[in-house]
Amino acid sequence: MITKLTSGVAPNVLEVSNESHKHSVPPGSESHFKVVVISQDFNGIRLVQRHQMIYSILADELAGSVHALALHTYTPDEWIEKRNETPESPNCLGSKNRT
Fold first, then answer.
1. Per the CB 3.0–4.6 Å rule, which of 12, 41, 58, 79 could disulfide with 74?
2. The architecture CATH gives domain 2-81
3. Is the whole-model pTM more than 0.70?
4. Phi, psi of 51 (to 5 degrees)
5. Environment class of 96 (CB within 10 Å of its CB; exposed 0-12, middle 13-18, buried 19+)
């Protein structure tokens, strides 16, 4: 994923975190990821279009073992406004984790 995203959107910052452990999947799974991308390529592009770009770049992964992406896509200026922080992903509320 990192290689594809690096060539696809020329990121200033790129973070890909496996968050599968927060979900009802077998240990060692690689199915749920948090992706943070800061790129000048996002200037003037709406959030939905940014996400569509990422989905297009990672189409093979999404057709395979990747079940979910938590996308955080920002321009460099937006990233500065966010103070270089992204929201924490919640734990899964899937069938095994519901209370």
1. 79
2. 2-Layer Sandwich (3.30)
3. yes
4. -65, -40
5. exposed
Domain residue extents for the chain: 2-81
Quick: pLDDT tens for 57-96. 999 998 987 878 889 999 999 999 988 887 777 666 664 5
The three-state DSSP-derived secondary structure of the chain is: CHHHHHHHHCCCEEEEEECHHHCCCCCCCCCEEEEEEECHHHCCCCHHHHHHHHHHHCHHHHHCCCCEEEEEEECHHHHHHCCCCCCCCCCCCCCCCCC
